From TrEMBL:
Domain of life: Bacteria
SMART domains in UniProt: HTH_XRE
Name of the molecule in the record: Helix-turn-helix domain-containing protein
Organism: Lacticaseibacillus suilingensis
HTH cro/C1-type domain mapped to chain residues: 15-68
Stretches that traverse the bilayer: none
């Protein structure tokens, strides 16, 4: 008799990555949840703990289950889940080839279709620099059946429209979509544990749009929201990018705080091994 295939497969290397990103030791991650030995088995042997332990670990790490587990899905679902992880962490170039492997015809649920169109919009925007194509796909998200005002995909797609129109130089429309995304976010408070990376992404992109619009007071407001949230949760996710944009904003304003912000951003870029960002910062900091 063949054994039943487990419902989940855990990626131990991803657990290790997020633990180190959070600055936790194995013992600190395990405290009051499980034993350090359990964490070691998860990271080294991909050992799947109980669902209760798994959920508590992801909450402490500030990530979702999708970040560290793979369900026994079909090939299309696996590809879509992988693309989702890459998009959430801003790795759009890596997401592009994976997205091409997704068979859209096999996405039968409204939720999966909205995820696909949102990911496609982000790839068009940040990899292909095709703003009109991105606008089309973000629009597909908002036009899908089953749309509600408390829909995370709606917030992200609305924000995507704001970014696309800002990059096209259509400032009025960019402002409208940015305000809509902000209102949607207020109607749907996010669980800081599970959706920390999503909320930080929203603050980061909101600040980027306002930077394009030269609304620097708003830039600094959203950056501070993001920085405070990341620090509160001991997360390095997007923190170097947030401080980088803060430094650039201070520089535009002729504010002496630019130098200090550049130094923090440089240190964070080194810690997170963000080589491209580090190169940019070294050149900018020299003239700050």
């Amino acid at each position: 008799m063949s054994k039943t295939q487990p419902a989940l497969r855990i990626m131990g290397d991803r657990v290790r990555y997020f633990r180190k990103l959070k600055g936790l030791s194995q013992a600190e991650l395990a405290k009051d949840i499980c034993t350090q030995a359990t964490i070691s088995l998860i990271e080294k042997r991909n050992k799947v703990p109980s669902m209760n332990i798994l959920i508590r670990l992801t909450n402490r790490l500030g990530i979702s289950l999708d970040d560290i587990v793979v369900e026994n899905q079909d090939r299309t679902q696996k590809a879509l889940s992988q693309v989702g992880r890459q998009v959430r962490h801003g790795d759009y170039a890596a997401a592009a080839p994976g997205l091409a492997k997704v068979n859209v015809a096999k996405l039968t649920s409204d939720s999966d279709q909205k995820r696909y169109y949102y990911y496609r919009g982000m790839v068009e925007l940040f990899v292909n620099h095709a703003q009109d194509e991105a606008i089309y796909y973000f629009g597909r998200v908002l036009n899908q059946q089953g749309q509600t005002h408390q829909d995370l995909a709606a917030i992200m797609a609305t924000l995507g429209l704001g970014i696309a129109y800002a990059e096209k130089g259509t400032t009025d429309r960019a402002s409208v979509y940015l305000q809509q995304a902000d209102q949607l976010l207020k109607q749907m408070p996010l669980n800081e544990g599970r959706y920390l990376d999503v909320e930080l992404t929203i603050y980061w992109h909101s600040a980027r749009i306002y930077f394009e619009l030269k609304a620097y007071d708003e830039v600094l407001k959203y950056l501070q929201l993001g920085i405070d949230l990341a620090v509160k949760n001991d997360s390095l996710f997007l923190l170097a990018e947030l401080y980088t944009l803060q430094a650039r904003t201070y520089k535009q304003l002729g504010d002496a705080q630019a130098s200090g912000a550049y130094q923090i951003a440089l240190a964070l870029a080194q810690v997170t091994a963000s080589r491209d960002l580090l190169t940019q910062l070294q050149a900018e900091a020299a003239s700050a």
